[in-house]
Amino acid sequence: MKDKKSTLSLLRLALFLFLILSAAAAHAAANTDNKVIKFAACNLKVYEDTAKVLAGEVEKLGYKLEYIFLADNTQINEAVESGEYFANYHQHTPYMEEFNRGHKGHLAAAFKVFTDKSGLFSKKYKSLSDLPIGAKISIPVDVGNNFRTFVMLAGEGLIKIKDGVEATAITQNDIVENPKKLQFIEVDYTMLSRALEEADAGFLYATVAAEINLDVSKDALVTEPIEHQAADIIAVRSENLNDKRTEILRQAYYTDAMKQALKESYAGRDILEPAW
After folding, report:
1. Shared domain check, 211 and 137
2. How many CB atoms are closer than 10 A to CB 160?
3. Which of 7, 69, 122, 129 has the most CB atoms less than 10 A away?
4. Is the residue at 15 inside a domain?
5. Are residue 207 and residue 136 in the same domain, yes or no?
6. What is the full per-residue pLDDT of the chain (276 aa) written as tens digits?
């Protein structure tokens, strides 16, 4: 009888210890998971280069950045909207807001990272005045970006926009005068540099231009007014704005190492303007 009682006592003790160790392991795993930041970024060079450096800066703060590079901007936003990834890195606020409107999204700008200037470029003509009647202009298809071309052309007197339309809301339908009968060809953002080969002129951000050896400050026929330039951001779901991981990302990004990474991504050239 005594042996049975001893055996039962030992079994109870073993079960108790098992439960304690299991709970401790689960707690440790939860803490580890909470220190992993899943990060979706665009597969363009500057985002890839700087995300890898960002991972190192995040690690210095005791966290781990698990990143993935994707080509489709909508997919990158959906990855965060669904909760599969914590944050993303590929867009400015106007683009994010357009995604939220179209997809009933809940993304919010956690912090600004850099400004990517834009301009109109041509491989065929040296100035906007040289553009022929019926010239084809390649522009981004998304609403968050294609107004920029119209703002630049209106500023140079090549088109006239209907009175009272807010700049960020301008579409082709708001053009009331177009004496050169310019034709606007909407293409996906990732296809803009390729589209420039066929078009008479086209919209490019400084980063995209640099990848085909064009310099926005030297080669652009016109550049976007500073008041319409939009800084790129790190985006999270709105309920995660005050999450510790968001602050870790901000601290990791706002470092000298990241400023250097932005420059090194373009062979030491100041293509991008850091936001801090």
Report:
1. yes
2. 14
3. 122
4. no
5. yes
6. 555 555 545 555 455 545 444 444 444 344 456 899 999 999 988 999 999 999 999 999 999 999 999 999 999 999 999 999 999 999 999 999 999 999 999 999 999 999 999 999 999 999 999 999 999 999 999 888 989 999 999 999 999 999 999 998 899 999 999 999 999 999 988 899 999 999 999 999 998 999 899 999 999 999 999 988 999 999 999 999 999 999 999 999 999 999 999 999 998 988 999 999
Whether the CB-CB separation of 225 and 150 falls below 8 Å is answered with no
Residue 7 lies in a domain: no
What pTM did the predictor assign? Answer: 0.77
Query: What are the respective helix, strand and coil percentages of the chain, to the nearest 5?
Result: 50, 25, 30
CA-CA distance, 273 to 206, in Å (whole number)?
Answer: 11
Q: What is the DSSP string of 155-223?
A: HTTSSEEPTT--GGG--GGGEEE-TT--EEEEE-GGGHHHHHHHSSEEEEEHHHHHHTT--HHHH-SEE
CATH number at residue 180: 3.40.190.10
Containing structural domain, residue 158 = 118-228
Beta strands in the chain (DSSP E): 36-42, 64-70, 87-92, 107-115, 118-121, 136-140, 160-161, 175-177, 183-187, 201-205, 222-223, 231-237, 273-274
Task: Name beta bridge partners: 107.
Answer: 237
